[in-house]
Amino acid sequence: MSHYCDLAPGHPFHGPYHDHEYGFPVAEDTPLFERLVLEINQAGLSWLTVLKKRAAFRAAFDGFAIDRVAAYGEAERARLLADAGIIRNRLKVDAVIHNAGVIQALREEHGSLAAWLDHHHPLPHAEWVRLFKRTFRFTGPEITGEFLMSTGYLPGAHRDDCPVQARILTAGPRWVER
C-alpha cells in the first residue's frame, strides 16, 4: 500500500502540504479551523481536489475568520452554495458555519480551540471520535483522525523514515511523550 510519504514529494499540491504542514503542530485557531474545514470538505473526495480548491476555500470563507463564518446567514450560505470554486455541498457548508459557532463557544470556555484540544489530549482515536461527534457536525472517524493527525495531535502522518518526520519531532507534536 502506498503511503502519503511515497506519493507527495515533488507533487505540485501534495508536496508542499506534505513537506511543510501535514503532521506539524498547529496552535492557532484560524489554521486549526482551516484544517477542519478542509478535512470536512474532503469527505468522499480526493485530498488533491481539496488542495487544488484551497485558495478558493480561503476566499469563500473570509480567510477562515471564525467569528465572520459563525455569523453567516442565508445570504452567505447561498453565496457559498453557488461558488463553483469550492465544494458545493449543503451539509458541508452548514457544518462549517455551525462548527465556527461551536469554536466560538469553546473559546469562551477554554480560551481557544487549541486549548480545548490540549484539555482533552491525550485520548485514543476512538475517544477523540466520540468527543468530536458530540461537539461538531460532519466529523466521523476519518475526518477526526485526519484532522488530529494533520495538526500534530495524533501520530501517523509520516513514516518513521520520512525526512519530514524528523522535522515534525523537532517541532514537538502533542502525541510525543514529554
Plain-language structure description:
The chain is mostly helical. Helix content is 62%, strand content 0%. The chain is built from twelve helices and no strands. The protein is globular and about 50 Å long. The model has no long low-confidence stretch (mean pLDDT 97). This is DNA-3-methyladenine glycosylase I. GO terms for molecular function: DNA-3-methyladenine glycosylase activity; metal ion binding. Its EC number is 3.2.2.20. Keywords: Glycosidase, Hydrolase, Metal-binding, Zinc.
Quick overview of this protein structure:
This protein has 178 residues and is mainly α. It has twelve helices and no strands.
Cα-atom Rg, whole angstroms?
Answer: 16 Å
**The number of domains:** 1
Quote the average pLDDT: 97
Q: What structural class is derived from the secondary structure elements?
A: mainly alpha
Q: Which regions have little confidence, pLDDT < 50, spanning 5+ residues?
A: none
Can you identify the CATH superfamily? Hypothetical protein, domain 2
Pfam family, one: Adenine_glyco
Keywords: Glycosidase, Hydrolase, Metal-binding, Zinc
Binding site for Zn(2+): 5, 18
GO molecular function: DNA-3-methyladenine glycosylase activity; metal ion binding
